UniProtKB/TrEMBL annotation:
InterPro entries: 6-hairpin_glycosidase_sf, 6hp_glycosidase-like_sf, Ssp411, Ssp411-like_TRX, Thioredoxin-like_sf
Coiled coil: none
A family per Pfam: Thioredox_DsbH
Gene3D superfamilies per the UniProt record, alphabetical: 1.50.10.10, 1.50.10.20, Glutaredoxin (3.40.30.10)
Protein name: Thioredoxin domain-containing protein
Domain Spermatogenesis-associated protein 20-like TRX: 28-181
Length: 697
């Protein structure tokens, strides 16, 4: 059964409106007034779709009708397939309209709804995905959940539950109550905490257990399908540096190499697809999501700092170029996704036929085909090829009696020719929502690239994205989850505040501009006020309309928003000497110790914070008129477990108190309120780091 697993100039999806502007539609439903590209795709289905809104839920209650809830997103291949097979079908629509209140949801606009019903789906089937198609009681409790269905399967499901609800409503309600209780239990948090005295043992134990599932040949975790998982690789890289653990560092490098060489990476145009449909990273699921590319820029840039692997630098720059060219709006925000489908075919924009390659590349074809595995046994089941390689460029060049420079020039020639040819194809549509949390992740990625490569282009772009979000996704009183021209979405979630505060703090750290720190602190305090929960964690949303309160702890495709909150409390707590923040961070972290110990691969962001407890955490404070250039030089070193902050002037921030001397620039290194004497040169600073026993030395 198919599903999108849960785990010229490009045109945004508004082009769909342009293509259909002059058409006369036989059917129009309530989605026509929405701004979401995904919902607009369904606005002319014969199904009487409605958006998730109080009036739709009220209708279900008043008429005592079951609800069909269908959740997807605009770039999801199997969502398109089910629309074409079922939701555009008159017979299916008649069955749905007669017996159900039908609600469509864009999971990118309402991740809270998606999480609740994905949880229910996983409880009954073991895994989730999109499209998610659920049947709910009028009060929202689920009675059935599934993903993609053929027309016949879907009609059978509809008929069965419509009949059951009419003939045996008590039985249906009893089952729905039990399933809802299971969903509510899933979000229950542990009431007892273990403390953090054994942090090092907990992390080491977690990594040892996780390592049993590492794919030692192809990288990543063993399995028939593979997601990259940047959060866990980020943590493992830090652990490898702190422990000088070659096996940990090797697994990170192997994974990133195989991903960058595989078909999950677009070798022609740059950027990453969502996941691999095989264990070898060869054949992707063809959506390109902003959140994946944002996090992968960050981990590749960070890994380059440690490993100096030239492939990683190439990937960062090429992905940066792809994002700017294909997914950026003119004012600085980045769109959410590119469709998997083109011209009605999954991957149609990216798959190559031999004849096309021969025609475009001419005499360059044989070498291209050898490097990118264009051979009969690699042909996709549906025909065509996705370029991937099993050799680093330098090794391939040596094997073919070419210098690295000669081979790189050939690659550039191939890529330019194929990009030009590919532009003649129908482009995948783009979902032009600008999602706050995903753009904040991109800012983090660009900040890391700036720190690694000392290239102003990354910092400039990070600041432009931040400025866009502050202008369009923030009204001075609250953030919005997403922005779209002429859109009216008002939802906001913990991830928006947490990720945005983190990106503001990151910009402060590299620019030393206090206004960024002010924004970070303001957003953190707003998040604490809005989403506080008696559990000790923070709720995902402020909404009380769902069947359960959502408190997310593990990482998903995004880092855990609660883990980011705990990291912010830890870091700002150190900067302000705020004992309350530091204690709150510890309290939150202590609730995740069992998760880190047993399933660290799902708790990577938490484990990154636990490393601060497991190993000495150093404060590097630079104060004086040359602080910016000194910090830029320090950034050349791959320090883990350090807070690096600076100020050009006298500051009332606690960490700078009494440290500014006019005409001087001092570097202070401290651990647990114990500081060395200030120094003025990088060599003396490095000696101090070594004297503290920092593992980089």
């Amino acid at each position: 059964m198919g599903s999108c697993k849960n785990g010229g100039e490009s045109k945004p999806s508004s082009q769909l409106d342009g293509e259909t502007a002059n058409r006369v539609f036989e059917f129009t439903n309530d989605l026509v007034d929405e701004s979401s590209p995904y919902l607009l795709q369904h606005a002319h289905n014969p199904v009487d779709w409605r958006p998730w809104a109080p009036d739709a839920l009220d209708t279900a209650q008043k008429t005592d009708q079951l609800i069909v809830l269908s959740i997807g997103y605009s770039s999801c291949h199997w969502c398109h397939v089910m629309e074409e097979e079922s939701f555009e079908d008159i017979e299916v629509a008649a069955l749905m309209n007669e017996n159900f209140v039908n609600i469509k949801v864009d999971r990118e606009e309402r991740p809270d709804l998606d999480q609740v019903y994905q949880t229910a789906l996983k409880l009954v089937s073991g895994n989730g995905g999109w499209p998610l198609n659920a049947i709910l009681l009028p009060d929202g409790k689920p009675v059935y959940l599934g993903t993609y269905h053929t027309k016949e399967e879907w009609m059978a499901v509809l008929s069965k539950f419509s009949s059951e609800y009419k003939n045996n409503p008590d039985k249906i309600k009893e089952y729905a109550a039990l399933l809802t209780e299971g969903v509510q239990d899933f979000y229950e948090l542990p009431t007892s905490t273990k403390g953090l005295t054994d942090s090092r043992v907990i992390v080491e134990s977690g990594i040892a257990k996780w390592s049993n599932s590492w794919d030692k040949t192809w990288g990543g975790d063993t399995g028939n399908q593979k997601f990259v998982g940047p959060a866990k690789l980020n943590m493992l890289l830090d652990y490898g540096v702190l422990e000088n653990d070659e096996s940990a560092e090797h697994h990170v490098e192997l994974t990133l190499e195989k991903v960058a060489m595989g078909g999950i990476y677009d070798h022609i145009g740059g950027g990453f697809f969502r996941y691999s449909t095989d264990p070898y990273w060869k054949t992707p699921h063809f959506e390109k999501m902003l959140y994946d590319n944002a996090q992968l820029i960050q981990i590749y840039a960070k890994a380059y700092q440690v490993m100096s692997n030239p492939l990683f630098k190439d990937v960062v720059y090429k992905t940066f170029g792809f994002l700017k060219d294909e997914m950026r709006n003119p004012n600085g925000g980045y769109y959410s996704s590119m469709d998997a489908d083109s011209n009605g075919k999954e991957g149609g924009y990216y798959i190559w036929q031999k004849d096309d390659l021969r025609s475009v590349l001419q005499e360059g074809y044989p070498l291209f085909a050898e490097y990118f595995n264009i051979k009969d046994e690699e042909e996709l089941q549906e025909g065509g090829f996705v370029p991937y390689t099993t050799m680093q460029g330098s090794a391939f060049a040596d094997a073919n009696d070419l210098s690295a420079e000669e081979f790189n020039k050939k690659k550039e020639t191939w890529e330019k020719a194929l990009v030009s040819h590919r532009e003649s194809r129908k482009r995948p549509s783009i979902d032009d929502k600008v999602i706050t949390s995903w753009n904040a992740l991109l800012i983090d990625g660009y900040i890391q690239a700036y720190r690694t490569f000392d290239d102003q282009v990354f910092l400039t772009e990070a600041q432009k994205v931040f400025d866009f979000l502050m202008s369009h996704n923030y009204d001075g009183k609250r953030l919005l989850h997403s922005f779209k021209e002429e859109g009216s979405r008002q939802e906001v979630f913990l991830e928006d505040y947490a990720f945005m505060a983190k990106s503001a703090l990151g910009l402060y750290e590299v620019t030393l501009k206090p206004n960024y720190l002010d924004v970070a602190k303001r957003l953190l305090n707003m998040a604490m006020a809005r989403f506080t929960d008696e559990s000790g964690m923070y709720a995902y949303s402020e909404s009380d309309e769902l069947i359960t309160k959502i408190i997310n702890i593990p990482d998903g495709v995004l880092p855990s928003a609660n883990a980011i909150m705990a990291q912010l409390l830890f870091k700002i707590g150190h900067m302000e000497y705020n004992k309350g923040f530091l204690q709150k961070s510890d309290d939150m972290l202590s609730m995740t110790t069992n998760g880190i110990n047993e399933n660290i691969e799902f708790y990577g962001t938490w484990a990154s914070l636990m490393l601060h407890k497991a190993y000495p955490y150093l404060e590097i404070v630079v104060v004086g008129e040359n602080a910016a250039s000194v910090i830029s030089e320090i950034d050349n070193y791959p320090f883990s477990n350090t807070l690096l902050v600076g100020s050009l002037t006298e500051s009332d921030l606690s960490i700078f108190d009494g440290r500014y001397v006019e005409g001087e620039t001092f570097i202070y290194v401290c651990e647990n309120k114990t500081c060395k004497l200030p120094v003025t040169t990088i060599p003396d600073f490095l000696k101090q780091m070594a004297s503290f026993g920092h593992p980089s030395f």
